[in-house]
TrEMBL record:
Designated name of the protein: SRPBCC family protein
Pfam families tied to this protein: Polyketide_cyc2 (PF10604)
InterPro entries reported for this sequence: Polyketide_cyclase/dehydratase, START-like_dom_sf
Keyword field contains GTP-binding: no
Keyword terms: Membrane, Transmembrane, Transmembrane helix
Transmembrane segments: 6-25
Lineage: superkingdom: Bacteria
Length: 184
């Protein structure tokens, strides 16, 4: 009986310790960037093209507008994501938009709210796409869990930016090949 009492106290202390992490840990914030050897206007257009999104983010199974506004800000979308065999629904709201310069969005999915802020800077040899991310759990348990997953979130988003870079640059190669074939 004494063993069960001690085990229960230890378990309670561990659970309370884990949950207290959620009280003190805030948002997970990180940045990433990638150089893309294409003009800003083309990079921005492909980044915001819904059909292209499905090509460079294979986890996205569908992307549907819920509400679209003329100036883009306030537009809402529903995305279905394949998360290792389980389908997860995300709700996206555009919170900032300046053509060829910036786009900002908020995603809400289950226990998580994620803010993505992207800027597109002109370089002599293309575009610098800079991204700032903030991930926050929507409850104390999620906040506690996410405190341990900051590097995983960053790795996923860096992978996605590199996929986008590869997609954009392959579009250029394909378009150039099509132009050469049509002139022959």
């Amino acid at each position: 009986m004494k063993f069960l009492k001690i085990f229960g106290i230890i378990l309670l202390v561990l659970v309370l310790g884990f949950l207290s992490i959620g009280l003190f840990s805030g948002k997970q914030e990180y940045q990433a960037e990638v150089k893309i050897y294409k003009p800003v206007a083309e990079v921005f257009a492909l980044f915001n093209d819904q059909e292209s999104l499905l090509k460079w983010l294979p986890e996205v199974k569908s992307f549907e507008p819920i509400k679209e506004t003329p100036n883009k800000v306030g537009s809402e979308y529903k995305m279905l994501i394949d998360n290792q065999g389980q389908v997860m629904e995300m709700h996206e709201t555009l919170t900032g938009y300046k053509e060829n310069e910036m786009i900002e969005m908020v995603f809400v999915a289950g226990w998580m709210t994620k803010n993505n802020h992207f800027t597109f800077e002109k370089l002599n040899e293309g575009t610098l796409l800079k991204a700032s991310y903030t991930v926050e759990g929507n409850n104390i348990f999620a906040k506690s869990m996410f405190a341990f997953f900051g590097s995983m979130f960053k790795q996923i988003d860096e992978t996605n930016l590199n996929r986008f870079k590869d997609f954009v640059e392959s579009q250029t190669a394909l378009q150039n090949e099509e132009k050469v074939e049509s002139t022959i």
